[in-house]
Specification:
With 208 residues, the chain is an all-alpha fold. It folds into 2 domains: 8-80, Arc Repressor Mutant, subunit A, CATH 1.10.10.60; 93-205, Tetracycline Repressor, domain 2. It has helices at 8-15, 31-49, 56-63, 67-73, 77-92, 102-133, 135-162, 172-188, 195-205. Helix 2 (31-49) packs across helix 6 and helix 8 (172-188) packs antiparallel against helix 9 (195-205). The radius of gyration is 20 Å and the shape is elongated.
């Protein structure tokens, strides 16, 4: 499992001294560096303060860029924050291979998610809470964070159904909702999640 360091790319960019990495203007990083700096700031500040307490001004100050630089790339704070966390989560939650048996693939997938929740559980819970109060953010949170994982699970279950690992009458949408509901319920209530919970959920889904 890869380990995501949100500051690594920023530090690397600022330490580079060749001509191709020079900034455009005093004190302002180039566009790619600015994007990395803003993403790193978003992750750090949301982890520290929670989504609702992070302002646009705090993000731009932490990244050392102007508000216009942020808005040139993202239309809102929500889009920036979800881009940052989508990148981080994508490193840690790979899509299981198509040839892995369904129960094993689901166990591996859930185990990776649970590792991510161990590190960023408080932050993700703040994003879930913010999604209840901010409909615009809720849409972005669904599109960028929830829906891609739901798609992975549904594809995994459909492959398993095709191979005869799941009964043909099992409803894939309902199974996906049950899988996500099981671990979000525990996460939102501060209950532990680990490999054992991943195994139990997968075993129950594939019980014939």
């Amino acid at each position: 499992m890869g380990i995501f360091n949100p500051l690594a790319s920023v530090y690397a960019a600022f330490m580079t001294t060749n001509d191709s990495s020079k900034r455009n203007g005093p004190g302002r990083p180039r566009d790619a560096e600015a994007a990395d700096a803003l993403k790193a700031a978003a992750i750090r500040l949301v982890r520290d303060r929670g989504y609702s307490r992070v302002t646009i001004g705090a993000l731009t100050d932490a990244a050392g860029v102007s508000r216009q630089t942020l808005y040139n790339r993202w239309p809102s704070k929500a889009e920036l924050v979800m881009d940052a966390f989508y990148d981080a989560a994508s490193v840690n939650v790979p899509n299981p291979g198509p040839d892995v048996p369904g129960e094993t693939a689901l166990t591996q997938f859930l185990s990776e998610i649970f590792e991510h929740l161990k590190r960023d559980g408080d932050c993700l819970r703040s994003l879930v809470a913010a999604a209840q109060d901010d409909t615009d953010f809720r849409d972005v949170f669904w599109q960028r964070f929830v829906a891609p994982r739901s798609t992975i699970v549904k594809d995994l279950l459909r492959r398993s159904q095709t191979r005869g690992e799941l009964a043909p009458d099992r409803d894939i949408d309902i199974l996906s909702n049950m899988i996500h509901g099981a671990f979000w319920y525990r996460s939102l209530n501060g209950q532990p999640l680990g490999v054992r919970e991943a195994q139990l959920i997968a075993r129950d889904v594939f019980r014939q």
